[in-house]
Design a protein that fits this description.
It is a single chain. The chain is α+β, with helices and mostly antiparallel strands and 401 residues long. It is 18% helix and 30% strand. The protein folds into 4 domains: 6-20 and 171-314, 3-Layer(aba) Sandwich (Molybdenum Cofactor Biosythetic Enzyme, Chain A), CATH 3.40.980.10; 25-45 and 149-170, no CATH class; 50-132, Molybdopterin biosynthesis moeA protein, domain 3, CATH 2.170.190.11; 324-399, MoeA, C-terminal, domain IV (Beta-clip, Beta Barrel), CATH 2.40.340. The two termini are 35 Å apart. The structure holds ligand LQZAQKY5 and molybdate ion. Residues 274-277, 293, 295, 298, 363 line the site of molybdate ion.
Length: 401
Amino acid sequence: MSLISVEDAVARMLAGVTHLGEESVPLREARGRVLARDLAAKRDQPPFRASAMDGYAVRAEDTPAGAWLHQIGEARAGSHFSGTLRPGETVRIFTGAPVPDGADAILIQENARADGERIEVLEPVAAGRHIRAAAVDFREGETLLQAGRRIGTRETALAAAMNHGVVPVRQRPIVAVLSTGDELVEPGEDPGPDQIVSSNGVAIASMVAACGGVARDLGVAVDDKQAIADAAAGAEDADILVVIGGASVGDHDLVQPALSEKGLKVDFWRVAMRPGKPVMFGTLGRTCVLGLPGNPVSALICALVFLKPLIAAMQGAEGAEPTRLLPLAADLPEVGNRQQYLRARFVEWQGRTAVTVADDQDSSLLATLARSDALIIRPPFASAAPAGDVVSVIDLAQALS
Ligand SMILES: Nc1nc2c(c(=O)[nH]1)N[C@H]1C(S)=C(S)[C@@H](COP(=O)(O)OP(=O)(O)OC[C@H]3O[C@@H](n4cnc5c(N)ncnc54)[C@H](O)[C@@H]3O)O[C@H]1N2
Ligand code: MOO
């Protein structure tokens, strides 16, 4: 049986993706959305020379220690002083206020002593000190956030400072999530002795929300072609249908037969990865269909490798999981023909942060996944790796937050 590589599978899946439409949303509601256009500054920041400290606006040359200055006014944030400083004069100033014309430094108040309107200089100050130049942060017209950037806290702050109250973003993909299996009951229900709680549906929906999609829970369909086909009808207007379970080769693995009758075109099935081999991708009309293996850890790792980039691509964003290189704290054996995703923990090893794998990598073990800090990625046919060898690692706290 031939398996497609993870790299080829992801590339094939992304090759057919088109961007979703664009919409405008208030910046306050834009968290997690992806910019559909570049965002340029609508003004200079700061728009004027601004004081960085509370104190006195001065001419630096007037400030030998012991000099006395005459206070002629006050400048506050939001209210400038309209005159011009002449020799021997100062203006009381507060952080964020426009620096008056004629002043070239701020004498901080700790280095001054006020006696009515007479101000004694306790420490000289150099020209330019504690003044932020106009537009030192950015200039009007400068593009600071590019299309494709996901809006988090930093982007929100910058877009706001650029004076964007409303931002152009990509629509959120609608992701229908269908679990399959006679054995499944929803979390919190009263399972029979042969039954299993459906953890995958709710977990994938959580991931969809975290990736900026809109999850539509289609619940659980029993292992029956008609039941699966009927339930999948709830995804007709969805951008993505995720079907969980029934992906393998057993007599009760009916997802492909059920959806084929509705017109599913399978692009790939079975990928050279472990866990996750039975993952399937195809299209049903305009809906992308991702078939995830039922084993809970396989489902989540496949969602990380395929669903996250798919959702990101529809929004015009980068979705590949960032990796970093860390040394192994213990030996690993050689790899077979499937790329491995090994649950692992961060440990201190020879004075450095290193990774060590969990003993049992069975793809049903969610507690092990929750205890793990990282996934070690090992490519197909990699040779045995001794402790100290560097491996590629995904940080789970970010990847499956
Ligand atoms: N003869 C073979 N058997 C299996 C193969 C194979 O190549 N040849 N592949 C194995 C691999 S690898 C995996 S992964 C599983 C994939 O199975 P399915 O996708 O068909 O999933 P199911 O059989 O429906 O379920 C597997 C397992 O996962 C549990 N499950 C299913 N859905 C959920 C859910 N929503 N929440 C929690 N747990 C779920 C289910 O109860 C089973 O225990 O096949 C191997 N077999
Ligand atoms: O490879 Mo399956 O996806 O491990 O259990």
